[in-house]
Write a structure and sequence with these properties.
about 290 residues; alpha/beta; TIM Barrel; eight-stranded parallel β-sheet; two-stranded antiparallel sheet; about 15% strand; Sugar phosphate isomerase/epimerase family protein
Length: about 290
């Protein structure tokens, strides 16, 4: 199987704010044909976070040879979803996702209520001929009882309605083996985020090895304060077993796109994605 390589636009969020169309042009020039957006303004913006009408956005992407293959929607609001889904239908996007949820993880009932919401979002997406997916960070690998939050989410959501976008970096930083996780949940895996961890990082690779207490509440502030920018490097230049991850991903029947993403960089954002695309060429699964 040959995967298509795309970019999560969060990687270029600062230049995107300053110059949306110019940045998309540079993304295309860097060799990317597929993009995933991250709309953190979904309370007021139906689209990809640019405040641009759907038809105009579609024309702009088509002119650059870009296709949208997913979009994070934050916040999730059932009343807002119909307009959001209609916007993405116009773009030709087939799936939307949830990019981060700061639960009070000690509260099982709250987590279960969110699972109910995810099922409802999945039902709405299905009615529009689309899919809903959940994206992980490392918080989901804390435990309530003998189960991780991720296991609770997976066992309390409908596999036909709630799919997953695995972030192998954050799974690793949560103390998980992404190869085993892909095997376990391969039938629900529809997108994969690939980051990389630098050789000389200032933190241990597992966040629970002295960076964050496994049992503490991970709030937005805790997540932000402990996410060290020096613990990210251009994809293909670090120590994560990317070829092994790509090989394992071949068993996932619904997975078509590998999305490169960089939360932080020591380079200019466009230079960073250019470097990642070039470094990623060495891996055997490219299209």
């Amino acid at each position: 199987m040959t995967f298509k390589i795309g970019l999560q636009l969060y990687s270029v969020r600062e230049v995107l704010k300053a110059d949306p169309y110019g940045t998309l042009a540079k993304v295309a020039e860097a060799g990317f044909k597929y993009i995933e957006a991250a709309n953190h303004n979904a309370a007021t913006d139906d689209g990809v976070g640019f405040g641009v009408p759907a038809v105009q956005m579609k024309e702009s992407m088509e002119a650059l040879g870009l296709s949208i293959v997913g979009c994070h929607i934050n916040p999730l609001n059932l009343d807002r979803l119909p307009a959001i889904l209609e916007y993405h239908q116009t773009l030709g996007n087939k799936q939307i996702g949830c990019d981060i949820e700061f639960y009070p993880y000690y509260d099982l009932e709250y987590v279960l209520r969110r699972c109910e919401l995810f099922n409802k979002v999945g039902e709405m997406c299905k009615a529009y001929g689309m899919r809903y997916y959940y994206h992980n960070h490392y918080q989901e690998f804390q435990k309530i009882g003998d189960q991780t939050i991720y296991e609770i989410i997976m066992s309390n959501t409908d596999p036909s309605l709630v799919f997953i976008e695995m972030d192998t970096y954050w799974m690793t930083r949560g103390g998980q083996d992404p190869l085993q996780m892909m095997e376990k949940y391969k039938d629900r895996l529809v997108l994969l985020h690939q980051k990389d961890f630098p050789r000389n990082a200032p933190q241990p690779i597992v966040m629970f090895d002295g960076v964050v207490d496994l049992n503490q509440e991970i709030t937005d502030a805790v997540f932000t304060e402990t996410k060290d920018p020096l613990c990210f490097t251009e994809i293909g230049t670090g120590i994560l077993p990317i070829q092994d991850i790509l090989d394992a991903a071949e068993t996932a029947p619904h997975l078509e796109y590998i999305l490169l993403e960089q939360d932080h960089t020591q380079l200019e954002e466009i230079e960073s994605i250019q470097t990642s695309m070039q470094a990623f060429q060495k891996f055997s699964i490219m299209k």
